[in-house]
Amino acid sequence: MSFVKITLHANKTEAVRRFHPWVFSGAIKNISGEPNEGDVVEVTDEKGNFLGLGHYAKGSIAVRIFSFANEKNVEQIFIQKIEAAIALRKQIGLWQNNITNAFRLIHGEGDDLPGLIVDVYGNTAVLQAHSKGMFQQRELIAQAIKKASAGVIENVYSKSDSALKHKEKTDGLLLGNSVCEEISEYKLLFKVDIPTGQKTGFFIDQRENRRLLARYAENKKVLNTFCYTGGFSVYAAKTGAALIHSVDSSAKATQLTNENMVLNECANYETFTADVFDFMNKQAANNFYDIIVLDPPAFAKNHNARHQAIQAYKRLNMVALQKIAKGGLIFTFSCSQAVSQEMFEGAVTAASIETGRKSKIIHRLMQPPDHPVNIFHPEGEYLKGLVLTVQ
After folding, report:
1. Residues 6+ apart with CB under 8 A from 235
2. Measured in whole angstroms, how far is the alpha carbon of residue 113 from the centre of its chain?
3. What mean pLDDT is reported for the chain?
4. What is the rounded CA–CA span in Å between residue 262 and residue 163?
5. Do the domain assignments include residue 198?
6. CA distance 69 to 90
7. Domain tally for the chain?
């Protein structure tokens, strides 16, 4: 099989030779044809030597490479990558286990399939394409997932409209007849809204951080901001927290939080539909909470928004520092890929300085092992978290 060839400038091949999967438009010297958005293309150096196979896109990132091996059978490449992803989940104990039946199966560049996210909920895989190339191959991917899972995954749901901002509606089942509606995580139950929920339906990446909070929550007053499904709230309640307040600006989110609290027979909780900043400024008393969780949506979608994002993280942590009791804990997070760990810690440090609250870092947190970071693509480390003890 032959593909349109994209030739790189001689001084622009080093990153690709080091297995970085992105080819930027400025690195391209020549294109042998006129590829369409999403087409598979072959990347070469000026001497015609093969460098990689990837999906073409019109934009700053012109090619996302999914194979550095000189293999042209795209279907076989995808099957091998998905089999490798399953093998990794088996290795880390997240495939047919007693921990959870919800985990990330494919994490984009971390699993050598840039532009593709696949989350598993029970017997359902939810596919989310972040590139047109992956979207165009969704049927192939669905069949490969079913085959590689040996029947464990019965349903594959495509949920890419929001990620690709399609005008036409394409979300829906690719394989199977139904989707999972409830998952188990460390013996706690959560409802999952795959068709209309955020992302693929649930925030899997906070699983281990929710469990960490449970170690500290007994008899504590807990505030969970940007609560969405109420994951941190459920863990706190089942550990025996004295009080749990969950806050989100979305009525749908707070309803889902309440449903999950009832599902797990939780007590001592109250849920508020309100702007988080307004709630903490107007309703929450200073020095009231023993634990505060700050898990906002990404404040920076790209590098141009970093400055504003850092200021937002600073303001949010300043308010939390005012509301936390002496000796209390703040679980503070950033899921903005464009904001580095150093930048995020700088914003939290600035908040501590301006409020005059002395803080110590007792945990540095990140995404769990089913969200692997390709060592050749450090940009894949998006989730950053700190647990502060506040004096």
Report:
1. 188, 210, 211, 213, 214, 217
2. 15
3. 95
4. 31
5. no
6. 24
7. 3
